[in-house]
Amino acid sequence: MTQYLLSVHGSVDDETPTDEVVQQMYADVGRFNDKVREAGKWVFAGGLEPITTATTVDATGERPTVTDGPYSEAKEFLGGFWVIEAADLDEALQWAKEGSAACGGPVEVRPFNPA
Amino acid sequence: MGSEDTSPVLGADAVATVVRAEYGRVVAGLIRRFGDIQLAEDALGEAIVIALERWPRDGVPPNPAGWLTTTASRKALDHLRRERVRDEKYAEAAMLTDDTPPEPTGPVKDDRLRLIFTCCHPALAEPARVALTLRLLGGLTVAEIASAFLVPETTMAQRITRAKAKIATARIPYRVPGPDDVADRLDAVLAVLYLVHNEGYLSRGGESADREDLALEAIRLTRALRSLAGDIGSPPEVDGLLALMLLSQARRPARIDDAGRLVTLDEQDRARWDTGLIDEGHALVRECLRRGAPGPYQIQAAIQAVHTDARDVSLTDWGQVVALYDQLLRLRPSPVVALNRAVALAELDGPQVALAVVDELELTAYAPWHATRADLLRRLGRDDDAGRAYAAAIATTPNPAERAWLASRRDRLGHGWGEGPGTP
């Protein structure tokens, strides 16, 4: 078994969804999460607060700095993620397809380094 | 492995041919056994070095694939023994130790089928899929693949290395996809074989007009896929692709003249076509029609079948060709298909009608679009416009044989040469 990160990416250009859409998404993601747990593939998952709440810390210089805002100025940002167990990439991609349909966003799949 | 039971001694070139023919199934078996593409390739590479040294001297063993598998397996086990960090894999592989020669059927076939699905996995970029397929299943060297696709060898080596690393770290599985995915995944495999064949049919560069080795390699792999497909049911599109390749290959002796110049379909000496390949291609097309599940490759094969059915260009059933292009356009709308349809339409309804269709297509970066326009303008007696269109076509194509052919067409303007469709 390998652990995979299934990350959901949003864009600042995305339109704000209606309450109805948001409620539906919560319900769909809840059902998907249950399915992952029942299959014994669940490690961890979570949705993140908006990118405007991000703070960046950099302790690589002489003195640590704390800055308001995301690390990257890119338009795309991490919105949430799952960490799952899967036998191989095909299984991880299958979960990602269902996860993407549930949360209504594209999902990036990356294996964790086992070391 | 003694020399007493070997076949007659062959030259180094013949030995290299044997090695290439066996490469795919041997490496596929090694990958299954050791679960590591790099290790399998390295071990087989060492076995091949020994084969190239011994076989020309002692003769090729009766079962070259078995010999290569046994020798490479020993090399792989040596590697694993030396690399103690791989203790676990060594234990696994040692348990699977099996020195019996591979059977010509059964699991050996499955190994190659598994490998082609791994090489053509959608998680790999298409250029990487093509390169990996040629490297692992076709047994081509990195240098050969790099030269076929006009990229520096280091770039191609990097592309292949990166793809293999992704297969290992992201754990792209080594198996035939399940029934839910197999149709989509097979499409990806066919697309790779089609690309390899196209590159062979009209190379983008180099000195020669085509790369016959690539075209033949694509045919060989498609034949292998078709014989393997028994396990997953042979889809008609596999037969369609094979027929398309065979009917293109059949025309090769007439497509390029003794000076290496391209000869267009209308001017080809049809007596030089390979009737054996045509018969095989036509039989496949008839079988596809009988099954009644048309797809893009089958339709393109059917178009080739109409052309190769005509003993003289004047006997071509252009109405049938246009109808098939209409069907293809409905399945796969594309300006290139529309252009090819227009070439046939010119024969059916005349150059004026065809030119109106061609001028609507947005293909100014595509040399055949300029060449088709040039030919239609020439046939309408608009030699000045035709000359400009030929110049545009020459400026757009990277293929030297095609450039030479276009220049000769342009030079003929105003001399009243024969009529005919204008693309090679």
Keywords:
heterodimer, A: 115 residues, alpha+beta, Alpha-Beta Plaits, 4-stranded antiparallel sheet, two-stranded antiparallel ribbon, 2 helices, 30% helix, 35% strand, globular, B: 424 residues, mainly alpha, Serine Threonine Protein Phosphatase 5, Tetratricopeptide repeat, 0% strand, elongated, disordered N terminus, disordered C terminus
In summary, what is this structure?
By secondary structure, chain A is α+β, with helices and mostly antiparallel strands. Chain A is built from two helices and six strands, in the order βαββββαβ. Chain A binds chain B through residues 2, 87-90, 93, 109-111, 113, and chain B through 121, 123, 169-173, 177, 181.
Strand percentage of chain A lies at 25-35%
Task: From the alpha carbons, calculate the radius of gyration of chain B and give it in angstroms.
Answer: 24 Å
How far is it from the N-terminal to the C-terminal residue of chain A, by CA? Answer: 13 Å
User: What is CATH's topology name of chain A?
Assistant: Alpha-Beta Plaits
Major β-sheet annotation of chain B: none
Order of SSEs of chain B:
HHHHHHHHHHHHHHHHHHHH
Proportion in helices of chain A: 25-40%
Order of helices and strands of chain A: EHEEEEHE
- Structural class determined from secondary elements of chain A: alpha+beta
User: What is the second-level CATH architecture of chain A?
Assistant: 2-Layer Sandwich
Strand arrangement within the widest β-sheet of chain A reads 2-5-1-6
Alpha plus pi helix count of chain B: 20
Mean pLDDT of chain A: 93
What level of helicity do the residues of chain B show?
55-70%
Which regions of chain A contain 5 or more consecutive residues with pLDDT less than 50? none
Oligomer: heterodimer
Protein name (chain A): Sigma associated protein
Pfam families (chain A): YCII
Family (chain A): Belongs to the YciI family.
Domain YCII-related (chain A): 18-111
